[in-house]
Each structure stands twice: as structure tokens, then as C-alpha cells.
Specification:
Blueprint lengths: L17 H15 L9 H16 L7 E3 L5 E2 L8 E3 L11 H7 L8 H11 L11
Helix pairs in contact: 1-2
Length: 133
């Protein structure tokens, strides 16, 4: 079943960020989930909702400055063509135990999670600074 595409309403606007669009999509899926078992798409919608929640939980890094078309650097955005500049990539999160086990599949070690956590700490992942504890 397809529906006719409508032009964006005034409430939606055309200047919606990807993050705002993802949040709106998650809200729409959450409203549809109670009816999904009747159309056979519950698992697919629930998976999409989980993926959107995970993506929206990621921290948003704000630009440090903006580079204009001519190469000038500004602390604020001066036009739609400006390119954002960031100080560092977003902070990485520690691996889950499931991710650790998947990464070391086939490695014979009973202390694999402890080893992985030590490596993460040494790389400054998950707080605690650098260096092996």
C-alpha cells in the first residue's frame, strides 16, 4: 500500500536537521508500534526504533568555528555554504561485553573482558585517562 506524497507542511519546514528528522521518525514509529502486530511489521519497526534511539543517544559535537567559502574562519556561521570545523572527533564509547566477545572470538582467554577494559583505559576510552591500571 502506497500513499500519495504530500508537500511538507508549514509545521515541518525545510530546514530540519538530520537529528530532528530522526527524532520525528522515532516518535512516529513509537505511535505506530501499538498497531504494528496487526500488520506483521512489529519486529521491523521495533528494530528501527532501537536503531534510532541508539543514534540519538550519541553526543552531538558543536563546531568550534566555521570556514567561509573564501577560506576565512569565523566563530559563528555566516552563510549556508560555511563548513563546520571541529576540535576533535567525538569521544568513543567502551565496548559492550558482547562486542568484546565477538571481537576475540576464537581467542583462548578467560580474562578477555579484563584485558579489553585495560586496553580501553590505556587508549582513554570510557574515562579513567590513559595508562594501564
Amino acid at each position: 500500500m502506497t500513499r500519495k506524497k504530500k508537500p511538507p507542511s508549514a509545521s515541518v519546514g525545510t530546514d530540519v536537521t538530520l537529528r530532528e528528522a530522526a527524532q520525528r521518525a522515532l516518535e512516529a514509529i513509537d505511535r505506530a508500534l501499538p498497531y504494528a502486530p496487526h500488520c506483521g511489521e512489529f519486529d521491523a519497526l521495533a528494530d528501527m526504533a532501537d536503531a534510532l534511539r541508539a543514534a540519538l543517544a550519541e553526543p552531538v559535537q558543536e563546531p568550534y568555528a566555521w570556514m567561509a567559502v573564501g577560506g576565512s574562519i569565523w566563530r559563528h556561521k555566516t552563510s549556508e555554504d560555511d563548513v563546520p570545523l571541529f576540535t576533535a572527533p567525538p569521544q568513543r564509547k567502551p565496548l559492550t561485553e558482547e562486542e568484546i566477545y565477538a571481537a576475540i572470538k576464537g581467542v583462548d582467554s578467560l580474562r578477555a573482558v579484563e584485558v579489553a577494559r585495560a586496553v580501553e583505559r590505556a587508549h582513554g576510552i570510557g574515562g579513567g585517562g590513559g595508562g594501564v591500571a
